[in-house]
């Protein structure tokens, strides 16, 4: 291998890293359709010059793709209609503990596939879910019913304050061992005798 080939490979690699940093940092599961196309195209464009296509054209093409994705994301931020067109909308798959089979079919998602996503989120029962959606990036979004929600630290503090106020309002001014020290035996209910 000649030195030019090695330099070209390093140049393309570092150009790809820089362009991907500019394009944004997301895992494959979080990418939109447009971002996925750009990332696949970048990979192809960066490898092409190694097999004897112009390096300048490859870098130029990669820059155009990254600028395109940045432009699309900028437009999505400012125009809701364009965002819906490019990304799609969330689909409800569970409502009030019941599966929405119609939307599952539209998403081509099986109940087993949905249950797998639920387990990944730490959810075990469909009946515990008030509403669940499949987001445009494929992630599961959900809201639990009241009885299935975990206790928060704030709720725990309120509960402890409420308990301490009730305890303070009870009369504990006397000796709690007073009954033991009394000379006269106390009458106990008959069922205890």
Order of helices and strands: HHHHEEHHEEHH
Q: Which of globular, elongated, flat, extended, rod-shaped describes the shape? A: elongated
The number of helical segments is 8
The chain-level structural class is alpha+beta
Please state the CA-atom Rg, rounded to the nearest Å. Answer: 32 Å
Measure the end-to-end span.
100 Å
Main sheet: strands, sense, barrel: 4 strands, antiparallel
List the uncertain runs: none
Can you give the mean pLDDT?
77
List the domain count as a whole number: 2
What percent of residues adopt helix (DSSP H or I)?
Answer: 40-55%
Beta-strand proportion? 5-15%
Strand neighbour order, sheet with most strands: 2-1-3-4
Number of strands: 4
Description:
Helix 1 packs antiparallel against helix 2, helix 1 packs parallel to helix 3 and helix 3 crosses helix 4. A hairpin with a 2-residue loop joins strand 1 and strand 2. By secondary structure, the chain is an alpha+beta fold. The chain folds into 2 domains: 84 residues, no CATH class; 58 residues, 2-Layer Sandwich (CRO Repressor). The protein starts with a helix and ends in a 12-residue tail after the last helix. The mean pLDDT is 77. It contains 8 helices and 4 strands. 54% of the residues lie in helices and 9% in strands.
């Amino acid at each position: 291998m000649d030195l030019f080939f090695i330099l070209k490979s390093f140049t393309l690699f570092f150009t790809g890293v820089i362009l991907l940093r500019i394009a944004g940092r997301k895992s494959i599961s979080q990418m939109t359709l447009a971002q996925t196309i750009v990332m696949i195209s970048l990979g192809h464009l960066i490898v092409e010059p190694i097999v004897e296509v112009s390096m300048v054209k490859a870098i130029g093409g990669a820059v155009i793709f990254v600028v395109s994705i940045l432009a699309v994301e900028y437009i999505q931020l400012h125009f809701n209609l364009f965002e819906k067109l490019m990304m799609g909308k969330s689909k409800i798959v569970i409502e009030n503990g019941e599966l929405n089979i119609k939307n599952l079919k539209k998403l081509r998602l099986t109940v087993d596939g949905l249950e797998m996503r639920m387990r990944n989120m730490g959810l075990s029962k469909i009946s515990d879910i008030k509403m669940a959606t499949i987001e445009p990036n494929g992630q599961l979004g959900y809201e639990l019913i009241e009885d299935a929600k975990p206790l928060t630290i704030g709720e725990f503090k309120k509960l402890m304050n409420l308990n301490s106020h009730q305890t303070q309002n009870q009369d504990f001014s006397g000796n709690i061992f007073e009954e033991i020290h009394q000379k006269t035996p106390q009458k106990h209910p008959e069922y205890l005798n």
